[in-house]
Amino acid sequence: MDISGMSSLSIFFFNAVIALFAFFGVAPLLMSAVSVFGIQRRFATMMIAEGVIKEEDVKMIQPKKMIAAVVIALIVLGALALVCIQFRPYGYLSGIIPLVIGLLKYQKVCEFNSLTVKRFRNDYKLYMNTEKYNKYVEKNF
Fold first, then answer.
1. Exposure of 125 by Cβ count < 10 A (0-12 exposed, 13-18 middle, 19+ buried)?
2. Are 73 and 106 in contact (CB under 8 A)?
3. Nearest residue to 20 (alpha-carbon basis) of 80, 109, 78, 75
4. Interatomic CA distance for residues 52 and 137, integer angstroms
5. Closest alpha carbon to 79 in 95, 90, 94
6. How far apart are CA 35 and CA 49, in angstroms?
7. CA dist 67 to 13, 48, 58, 98, Å?
8. I need a labelling partner for 39 at 20 to 30 A (CA). Which of 58, 64, 80, 85 fits?
9. Are 80 and 22 in contact (CB under 8 A)?
10. CA triplet 60, 63, 64: central angle to 5 degrees?
11. pLDDT tens for the chain, residues 1 to 141
12. Which one, of 93, 104, 102, lies nearest residue 16 by Cα?
């Protein structure tokens, strides 16, 4: 797509959409994919040690979560890169800067906090011992 034939308002609109997509769409998905390999894996290991969930269940669910997170993050990142290339030279700025700011904003996803606990509960609710899980949450949060 050539931006030379577009009006200034159209260029502004497309760059604003790119920025919003990078900040609210791509950045959280990338941080979520990173957290699956880091903090969520460690939390699952802690829950195995506490007896909340069985190791077999984690081995069954965790690889699926990892593959899904990576595939989704790559698709969304590829879409952002493609759009930024199409709307160059301003597409790079309107895509990369909000992406970096979004990554800095959403870095809490990769820390051990109540969000980690909620995500674990949602992912393993069918397989976990709810009583032990609730005791652990009450004791530590």
1. exposed
2. no
3. 80
4. 11
5. 95
6. 20
7. 34, 21, 14, 26
8. 80
9. yes
10. 85
11. 555 666 788 888 888 999 999 999 999 999 988 888 888 888 888 899 989 999 999 999 989 989 999 999 999 999 999 999 888 888 888 999 999 999 999 887 777 777 888 888 888 989 999 899 888 888 877
12. 93
**What is the pTM assigned to this prediction?**
0.77
Residue 53 CB burial class (10 angstroms; 0-12, 13-18, ≥19):
buried
Neighbours of 99 (CB within 10 A): 23
Cis bond before residue 28 (omega within 30° of 0): no
